[in-house]
Amino acid sequence: MNKYSLILLSIFLAFTASAQRIEKNLPKNAYAVATINSKYFFDLISVGEFNQSEIGKALLKKIGKSNNKQFRSVEDFGIDLHAQMYIYSTKSDSIVYYGMLVPLYDAKKLDTLMSDIGTSLHAQKGSRRIDLEDKKQIVTWNDDVLRIFSGDLQDHFFENEEIAAKYGIKNSKLSDTYDTPLEPPAPPITDTVGSYWDETDTLEASSDSSVVTIQEEDYNSDNYVDSINQDSIYDNYYASIAADDSIKTVLLKKWLNDEVNRLSITKEIFENKSFKQVVNKKALASVWIRNVDELYNDFVPDVYSAFLGKKTNKFSAGFGSANAHLVVEGNQVKLSGALEVADDQAKSYHKIYNRKMNKKFFKYIDNDALVYLGYKVNTQAYLEELPKLTKQYYGRLLSGFKEEMDLGATLFSLVLDEKAIGKVVKGDGVFVLNSVKEREVKYTTYEYDDDYNSVEVEKMKKETLPDFLWMFSSDDMKLIEKLLSIGLSKRAITEEDGIYTFKNKKSPFDMHILLKDGIIFIGTSFESLVDVQQGKSKNNLSVKNKTVLKKNSAVLALNTSKISEAVSTLDLPDSYGSKALKEKLQGLGNFYFTSKGMDGNKMVAEFSGEFPSTHKNALKYILYLIENTAFGNM
Q1: pLDDT at 503
Q2: Could you give the CA distance from residue 444 to residue 2 in angstroms, rounded to a whole number?
């Protein structure tokens, strides 16, 4: 079996791996852990159904071909399909380790599967080990657990000059090679004997017109250096890079081998309280990260250096642990997540999200709308807390600019009247995309007359245009009214029955504005705003959608069935995949992306989607989509 087969097997293992039995094998310093509940997976789709699926068949065929064996079921791999498996990561300042823990029910079957991968090293107490061909991955197993190890070096670790010198790493830069001049070769040596014969044999030499004589004075060493330097510079540079890579490869293999040996003899117990607090037994898959700021500090040094020319690992956004859970319940899928924030930031965010949704919005939202986006924040609190949050986010990162940041925060508070702005724009609103239609629109172009003069002409063309309505609350509309008054006086806008219209030749549609009942309406349909002005509305928003808008600080709702209908009305060429898109959208229910804002000291969010009842559960439908897409049956 080659490494690509192992990758396929690893993908399968990620969906097919008792938690109490192997969780103890997680390193105590793991900073990221993914949990896969294979029992739940095979409750939703049976082993037999998976074997007969296109994905299952392809997996069995590929692994069987690599081993010159025939596998009839994923059970033949010896994996315990009724337990949990874990994928984890640990890291130091020099290397990041990745590991997989998979429980076994029949290690002899796994012996057969692994027999052709590489050289099996039998250790004590029945444990087995295989170093893969490139030796950047190590596989070990005993009668109970399969482990797969790999690693990646931290590049920034070797940028330290002392560390680089310790390991013999040059860290050459292309610009450095130009600082090492090449010695030009000596000028051509004159051969006196040759010259004598050239002089005596002038008749024969002159009779051959193809002979070219180069005089010594014609030679210019600068020309030679210019032509040779470029190749030499690049050759030296890439040779240095290759040498560094070779050293790093040796270090990676050694450190990975040391880590595998350490874990085989060390009795570590993973007992992270944060991890145990967020375990979701109903989840098909879960991910936990110990500290998000740690991740930031892995890539911030490079970003920081690009802007300010120096390295730092002092970035702190105030983020703590994070977790996410994938749950399948019938035909519904939920993906929920939470991010822990520092206590002082949590206080700020609680103030910012302290806003109720204006219930007047609901009667203007059509339940058949394609998309709606709702949000509610306290604008005044946001402006008041923004300088503080900015300092918390970037204070350590930009420690050399502390005084400038303090000055900026002071100026921000002086220039802006947070309370006044909070009255003009309270912070709650809803954007509604009602439809997308093809319409004939005018556009301006230029043509030449008989005298070749450029003449402006108007023509018609078809364009796909949105019909949307945006509304947000305001307790003080004086500023908006003054702006509209100025627009009228400058003839930039027009007014009819209290509805203001802004026209722009470069825009395919007009924008209309209406102020009513403490709400500012902005939309593309004049008729819709006339209905709002006259108190007409469909008022058909479902109880579920009203509840979602009330309970959450941010909501993005997608009405996929109506989106499918809208796509079917558009004259799209099939080259855009419109046919496949229409088929895949049919039967889907609503999709929601929601966030309640803060829950204690955590930011929380959730995605939920309703899948067609044509399949027994959402997982089966998702696998059906994958099969039809990957195997070209759609």
Answers
A1: 86
A2: 62
Measuring CA to CA, which residue among 29, 191, 38 is closest to residue 96?
A: 29
Alpha helix positions (H), 94-167: 107-114, 161-167
What confidence tens digit (pLDDT) does each residue in 198-224 have? Answer: 444 443 444 444 444 444 454 454 554
Q: How far apart are CA 54 and CA 73, in angstroms?
A: 13
Give the C-alpha separation, 7 to 139, whole Å.
12
- DSSP track, 579-612: HHHHHHHTT--EEEEEEEEEETTEEEEEEEEE--
Q: With CA atoms as reference, report the closest residue to 164 among 76, 94, 212.
A: 94
Handedness of CA 232, 237, 240, 241 (dihedral sign): negative
Burial of residue 200 (CB within 10 Å: 0-12, 13-18, 19+) is exposed
CB 435 within 8 A of CB 390: no
568, two tokens: 């079917």
Contacts of 568 (CB under 8 A, 6+ apart): 582
CA 619 to chain centre: 23
| Range in 153-167, 326-340, 516-530 with the lowest mean pLDDT | 153-167
Cα(201)–Cα(166) distance, integer angstroms: 65
369 token code pair: 């709308």
Query: Encoding tokens for residue 247?
Result: 């050293």
Long-range contacts of 255-261 (CB under 8 A, 24+ apart): 255/94, 255/95, 255/151, 256/95, 256/97, 256/136, 256/138, 256/149, 256/150, 256/151, 257/138, 259/97, 259/149, 259/151, 260/129, 260/138, 260/140, 260/149
Contact 156/302 with Cβ under 8 angstroms?
Answer: yes
Structure token digits, residue 523: 């939309």
- Of 211, 320, 333, 382, the C-alpha closest to 612 is 333
d(CA 72, CA 57): 9
Strands annotated E in 18-158? 32-37, 84-91, 95-103, 120-122, 128-131, 137-141, 145-153
Residue pair 622/595 in contact by the 8 Å Cβ criterion: no
Helix (H, G, I), strand (E, B) or coil at 289: strand
Question: Do the strands 511-516 and 519-523 form a parallel or antiparallel pair, or are they unpaired?
Answer: antiparallel
The Cα–Cα gap between 584 and 580 comes to 6
Q: Give the CA dihedral 5, 11, 15, 20, nearest 10 degrees.
A: 90
Predicted pLDDT at 220: 53
% of the chain surpassing 70 pLDDT = 78
Tokens of 34: 């993914």
State the number of CA atoms in the 13 A half-sphere of 454 facing the CB: 3
Average pLDDT over residues 354-371: 94
pLDDT at 203: 37
Closest CA to 326 of 604, 31, 83, 608: 608
- pTM (2 d.p.): 0.80
Give the span between the Cα atoms of 512 and 294, in whole angstroms: 48
3-state secondary structure of 494: strand
Which of 183-197, 214-228, 372-386 is the most confident on average?
372-386
Q: Which two tokens stand for residue 306?
A: 């690009």
